[in-house]
Each structure stands twice: as structure tokens, then as C-alpha cells.
Amino acid sequence: MTDVHTTHPAPGVLSRIFGTGQDGEGHEQVVLCHDRTSGLKAIIAVHSTALGPALGGTRFFPYGTEEEALQDALNLSRGMSYKNALAGLDLGGGKAVIIGDPDKDKNEAMLRAYGRFVESLRGRYITACDVGTYVQDMDVVARETSHVTGRSPEHGGAGDSSILTAFGVFQGMRASARARWGQPTLRGRRVGVSGVGKVGHYLVGHLVADGATVVVTDVSEAAVNRVRAAHPEVEVVADTAALLSSALDVYAPCALGGALTDDTVAVLGAAGTAVVCGAANNQLAHPGVEKDLADRGILYAPDYLVNSGGVIQVADEIEGFNFDRAKNKATKIFDTTLEIFTRAAADGIPPAVAADRLAEKRMREISALRSVLLPAARRS
Ligand SMILES: NC(=O)c1ccc[n+]([C@@H]2O[C@H](COP(=O)([O-])OP(=O)(O)OC[C@H]3O[C@@H](n4cnc5c(N)ncnc54)[C@H](O)[C@@H]3O)[C@@H](O)[C@H]2O)c1
User: Fold this and answer.
1) Where does NAD(+) bind (predicted)?
2) Which terminus of the chain has fewer CB atoms gathered within 10 Å of its CB, N or C?
3) Is 332 a catalytic residue?
4) How far apart are CA 281 and CA 259, in angstroms?
5) 264 lines ligand 1 (CB under 6 A)
6) Same domain for 110 and 234
7) Which CATH number fits the domain that encloses residue 101?
8) How far is 81 from 296, CA to CA, in rounded Å?
């Protein structure tokens, strides 16, 4: 037997994408897509198919640099592996980005060209909506591929995913209340919601119905007015800084990522805020913030766990959408959040680390089932 020699060229972009091959961290597949006629430039990143086809939305965004676009695709697809694993879905993690301004550049030919690239992966990647793409866009993508979800109800889709996202965040917040105060309710608590867009405004509805005192802020006057019209009792403050320092029991970041920085966590700690639980993706601005939160006694409900109601909804569409079935699955976010808090306390680690470990455990254990050969089904 001859020795197998592997050539190791100097590390470059491939090492960045695929990792060293030793830490299990690298992406499985990254596809660069270019359609000369429509001008489509897209990146489809499949982080992991350990649990099944990689599901994740398509972000249409005017990235400043190509580097940023690639990094976003890599980060977001990795995040989807963890989110889908913890949500108990038989789906891996993927995400795509289309480089461009959705308001100026998006058109039918470009979306359909993108759909053909998705189809070319033969189901290894299933797409859906994300920032800059909407259910109507997925209806167009669906004219070229069957590997698309998040379509409109008229086309058999699940429609607006923010309804179950907000419901799931509310379940995570109820679990946080139970862990912190003994009862799974926000009644009598002061909850601050930053960002009352699609998810935030539904979340406010759940909180008001539960008896919470709700304070909101948003850079969009229209978004604030919409909430005030539906819930006149809601208090409005000028900006997120004012919200953070306003003696909240619970802070719910529901706008953009990176809401939890060294500075904001210090303000929350000084104001005596007990819980952070919101819809925004990638809330922790950098590694270490999760420990800072724990050290200050602030209970942090991991973002990708509590905001998984939306992906649960679009995943359900793959089977033929049933709202009650999807809602039942999203209800389980309550139990999983409690489980994460219990594991974190038992192991003396922040909840964000406990969530990562549980997701990794499921990916490891379920993907290992493939070692049990099923010859007749010809599944690998
Ligand atoms: N929609 C979903 O199903 C879903 C699922 C999972 C995660 N998320 C995440 O939840 C967050 C909200 O999503 P959405 O669908 O409601 O988006 P959205 O765009 O409808 O709402 C975001 C709101 O935040 C406001 N905002 C922006 N910057 C702000 C700032 N600095 N201060 C205060 N408000 C600000 C915007 O004006 C807008 O009203 C995002 O981070 C998104 O990635 C959404």
C-alpha cells in the first residue's frame, strides 16, 4: 500500500470557507452564481447537511464589498445549522446572498436565474425569504425550482413567517420569566421592545395580552404609529439608549444584529434588567458578551433558539403547510429554552454556550445514524 500524500497549498479563501478540516467547523459547499444576462451575482453557502437538506433564506443586500457578502453568507448559513438543529428540524443549515439593492436591482429574470442555481443543487439547499426578499419573490423563484419555501398562501405557501417568529419569542420570554421569577408570565413586568417591525409589533400584542407594561422604540415613525394605533397603552421612548436605561425587567432586541455590546450590557446591568430575549439575529456583538451578561446576572435567552418560529413555519411548508402543526412545534421553544437554562446552570456556562452544545450534540448524534446501513432505501 502506498502512502497517501495530501498537498497543502498556502491557506487562502478556501481555508477560510472550509476551515482546516480538523475542527469540524468548515462549510460543506459554497456555490458562486453568475447570470450574465440579468446581472445576478449570488453566493449559496451550505454549512451542513448533517441533519438533512440545508434550509435558510436568501438575503438581497447592497453589500459594500464582496468580502462582506461572502462573510455574511458563511456566518448566516452556520447560524442556520444551529438554529435548525435546536428547533428539532431534520434540516441542515444554509443561506444565500444576492449582491445588489433590492429596491433597484431586483427583477423577474434575476430571481428566476437564482431559482435555476438553487435547482442545480437538487435539494441540497432549500431557500426561503430573508432581509430584502419577500413571499412574492419566492413565488417567482418557485417557477424555476421546487426547492423553495416561504411562498405566498395563494401558491400553497405559509406566508408571513413573522407571526410564528413573534409567537416563539414570546414562548422563550415566558420560559425566561419562569426561570427568573418562578411564573411563566410577563404580567406586571416592564418589557422594552427595540424595533417594532414585522416581528416586534406581533410580540407587543402577545405582551399586552399577557399583562406586561410595554415600552417601545423604533427609528421608523410609521412602525411606532402602527403599534400605538393597535395598542394605545404602549409607552414610546425616543431611542434604544433611552429604552435601555428605563428600568426594564426584560429587554427584547427586535431590530438589527449586534444589539448586545460591552456598552449596552453595562447599561442593562446598571439598570437592573433581569432578562434579554428578543427576535433579532446575531445579538451578541462579539464572543465574550454572553459571559458578561451571565456575570452581571442577566439571563440571556439565545437568539437563534427563541426566534426559530419563522424557520419552523417555513420548514412545515415543505410537508404542506399546516398552521396548527407549525404553531405546536413553535410552542416547544418554551421547553427548549427552559432546558437550556437548566443545562447552563448545571454546567456553570452561559445559556448561549449551552445552546451551541445541545445543537452540536444533536447534529453529531443524528448524523451518526447514517452509519446504520439501509440498503433498500438507498439513502446515504
Ligand atoms: N421575520 C422573521 O420571521 C424573522 C425570523 C427570525 C429572525 N428575525 C430577525 O428579527 C429582527 C426583526 O425582523 P423583522 O422581520 O421584524 O424586520 P423588520 O425590518 O420588519 O423590523 C425591524 C424594525 O427595526 C427598526 N429599526 C431599525 N434600526 C433600528 C434602531 N437602531 N433602533 C430601533 N429600531 C430600529 C426598523 O425601523 C423596523 O421597524 C431581524 O433581526 C431579523 O433578522 C426575523
Assistant:
1) 195-200
2) N
3) no
4) 9
5) no
6) no
7) 3.40.50.10860
8) 29
Report pLDDT digits (tens) over 121-158.
999 999 999 989 999 999 999 999 999 999 999 998 99
Q: Is 162 in the pocket of ligand 1 (CB under 6 A)?
A: yes
CA nearest ligand 1 atom 31, residue: 219
**Within a domain: 290:** yes
The preferred substitution site among 204, 225, 256 for testing ligand 1, maximizing ligand atoms within 8 Å of CB, is 256
365 is a domain residue: no
Counting atoms of ligand 1 from 1, which one is nearest the CA of 164? 3
C-beta of 77 in contact with ligand 1 (< 6 A)? no
Distance of alpha carbon 252 from alpha carbon 241, whole angstroms:
13
CA distances from 294 to 124, 273, 274, 298, 353 (A): 38, 12, 10, 6, 11
pTM above 0.90, yes or no: yes
Amino acid (1-letter code) at residue 360: E
Indicate whether residue 254 lines ligand 1 (CB < 6 A): yes
Assigned domain for 174 exists: yes
Q: Exactly one of 95, 327, 332, 361 is catalytic; name it.
A: 95
Q: How many CA atoms lie within 13 A of 72 on its CB side?
A: 23
- What would the pLDDT profile of 348-380 be if each residue is shown by its tens digit? 999 999 999 999 999 999 999 988 988 876 555
